[in-house]
Amino acid sequence: MRIGAHVDPTDPLAEAASRAADAVQFFLSDPQGWKAPNPREDADRLRAAEVDVYVHAPYVVNVATTNNRIRIPSRKLLLGHATGAAGIGAKGLIVHGGHVNAGDDLATGFDNWRKTFAYAAENGGFGVPVLIENTAGGDNACARRLDALARLWDAVGEYDVGFCLDTCHAHAGGEELLDLVDRVKAVTGRIDLIHANNSKDAFNSGRDRHDNLAGGTIDPELLVAVIRAAGAPVIVETPGGADGQGADIAFLREHLGGTTA
Ligand SMILES: [Zn+2]
Q: Which DSSP symbol is given to 177?
């Protein structure tokens, strides 16, 4: 099982080495900004690396919203980041499920997701697997709870859409972790990546504050059980830099058993 971390984008391979990580995830630009990513000077090194690379789309991306001034640039930004991710040989581009505004019909949000994949297909495709990630908060989210996720998957089912399961988001979002992998796979048919995070906040709090794996409000054994059941690559998005994340990666290797492959 490949295990890695979300790292600073300056020198991801050095960050991987300092954590003994098999994989890294990073942003290609300011996660709060609307800038399309520039080509990276280390693209050849990243493509050739033993370390698997994942790219996280900016947080501002919300392709579901009914607000044209957010939705249209979000589509373009997502496609731009997919192109950037493909250029460095990324295994996937992770993007949050997004939400509609209060009072809007969630059905519109799901259809906007469908249109996002249609738009990409008309423009040559994303060129990299796009993994929609479950989110922790809000009353109008497309991928907070599994009932919404099922409707989202109905909308985008004609496209090859991946799924990233964040354990902190599931817990804080109000989905029990026990047997969660089976329930998710019944909806999506797949889990492409796990974001392995503990949570500083209570079940169903709607808050998104990650904690180290052995800390937080989630029983670490339950985290390990979810990760083992998913059988997917793992990225920790936990605090503490190389020390904290390195300890989380070591914790997972120890508790998942076996060797990394
Ligand atoms: Zn995450």
A: S
